[in-house]
Write a structure and sequence with these properties.
Elements lengths: L3 H31 L2 E11 L4 E12 L2 H8 L17 H7 L6 E9 L3 E9 L8 E4 L12 E4 L5 E7 L3 E7 L15 E5 L1
Parallel strand pairs: 1-4, 2-5
Antiparallel strand pairs: 1-2, 3-4, 3-6, 5-9, 7-8, 7-9
């Protein structure tokens, strides 16, 4: 009888400890379920007096995995391993995973610091490498004031994030990546990618 009481007490402690873990696991699962990876294609609409190509965004959808979003955005020409996470993507990974010519990944924006959270990737008809500057005057209502970090790809080595639409307000310059946007966290409304 003396021995069974400590065993029952230890069992109760173990159940309480496991119950304490359940909300954390559920919270993690909920956070993963709410993460989305979206893609848009830049369609040229005009050329500014600075020579930048102004583009309209054509949204291609949001996906549960980052690899699927990149596949759709690139017209199936960038095939990443299914387990690739948004924070792992580098220019080298893109080059090694590209099977043929197609839409070019020029940038990915993230909703959390350090390339975490949901992502929005932008694809253009060409790289910045040939001297082309791409710009989007308005990221759209669903992404406005939502970005906290970002990466540049496709020769787009100087990327500017603007607080206001039409390239106004405070500016954050990334060469090509920024793990945090500092004062522009959750305050980005327009984007520019250039060599």
């Amino acid at each position: 009888m003396i021995r069974s009481a400590p065993l029952r007490l230890m069992g109760a402690i173990a159940l309480v400890a496991m119950a304490g873990l359940a909300p954390t696991s559920s919270a993690s699962a909920a956070a993963s379920a709410s993460t989305r990876h979206c893609v848009a294609r830049l369609v040229p609409i005009d050329v500014s007096d600075r020579g930048a190509v102004g583009a309209e965004l054509v949204h291609l959808g949001c996906y549960r995995t980052f690899a699927k979003a990149i596949e759709v955005g690139s017209d199936g020409t960038i095939l990443l391993p299914a387990t690739t996470t948004a924070d792992e993507l580098t220019q080298r990974t893109v080059m090694m995973s590209t099977t043929r010519g197609g839409s070019t990944l020029i940038g990915t924006e993230y909703t959390s610091d350090s390339y975490a959270g949901s992502s929005h990737s932008y694809f253009a008809p060409s790289t910045c490498g040939a001297g082309t500057t791409w710009e989007v005057a308005d990221v759209g209502a669903s992404w406005n004031n939502d970005f906290e970090s970002g990466k540049g790809f496709g020769g787009c080595d100087t990327n500017k994030k603007f607080a206001w639409q039409n390239f106004g307000g405070n500016v954050k310059t990334c060469t090509p990546n920024c793990a945090t946007y500092g004062i522009l966290q959750n305050d980005v409304s327009s984007l520019r990618w250039r060599p």
